[in-house]
Amino acid sequence: MEQGLAFLLPLFMGLLQQGRGGPLEVEPREPVVAVAVGESRQLTCRLACAGRRAASVQWRGLDTSLGAVQSGAGSSVLSVRNASLSSAGTHVCVGSCGNLTFQHTVRLLVFAFPNQLTVSPVALVAGRDQELACTAHNITPASPDALSLFLLLGDQELEGVQDLGQEEDEEPQEGEDLLFQVTKRWLLPPLGTLAPLTLHCQATMRLPGLELSHRKPIPVLHSLTSQETPVTTSLEATLEQNSTHSPGSPGPKPGNSSTRPCHPEIHQSPIPGGLELLCEAACGPGIAVHWTRAPGDLTAYKRREDGAQAWLSVLWAGCNPEGWFQCRLDPGGHTASLYLLPEICSPPMSAALWMGSLMLGLLLLTFLTHRLWKCCQPTRRPQGPPAPLKWPAFPSTQL
User: What is the pLDDT of residues 93-113, one digit of tens each?
Assistant: First the structure.
């Protein structure tokens, strides 16, 4: 049925007598109007006839029931509320002044581009070749000419990466709209270790008259040894991902505050036998921070909280713990996280291994002592055969 209407509509519109100059005024003026899933949009069409002739204006389309049409003297308004993918399509404004008939076509494009980016792995390690995947969820349209994924180092696109391809899959169906997840993979070169890095996965959607971008921060961890002060990357685990709009795209909605939200921060300082972590938030009175996550059991760590500051002691026990430490701000719920990644660990020795090492050390000490004693003995010169005994000579007597 819908395909038959699609065939008959151009034929019907071709029979209309078109006026010269096109006096119809349509807002917005773009031939393609993009609207996000769940949002609302109005298309207004006006016509003024010369003299005192009454103008007749009406929105028509393949299925005008998808929108509410209100027509009056010289104008018609098509309202699309809570847009879904089925709201997309071609709509035609038809106006007439007496025997003259005019038309204007607008294509409504419905898209979905929520701020839902995920990366795998969630953190990278400097100085290693590694593979990274970034996924944009609940997207439509998902074609490469509409959606692009790339990596940013600071504000520049990361160089030296190997593109491993892009995949599109259907998201699990929760409503009537068919949405997609788009995943792109790269093989990264070894990242530098001299300075902290800020790496982001950015997803950009380009539609007629609209460009939107979302970013997902990716922490870059530095290798460390148990003798070194840990060098890690601190990030907000529930960080609000940056969203940017092109100059021609709609700005923030009215009523949104431009004040930067308050977020906690984690600082670290070495202490004898370990590390002390400090979570603090400089947000004014009436706030508090709490430690909510640590490798293993949080109750196994020594903690102290005082309003906007909270301390946590990490003691080395042969091997410093590896994993995420997280604190939360109340009220507000914003969090900050710190990842510790040791490279060299010294596991505790068992009693049998300790006794075996002790016995081996004693045997080695005994051997060295014997060798040293032999080397320190005085040397004696060899003696010849004993000389023959000589009897004393007595004077001879004559009898």
Answer: 999 888 888 989 999 999 999
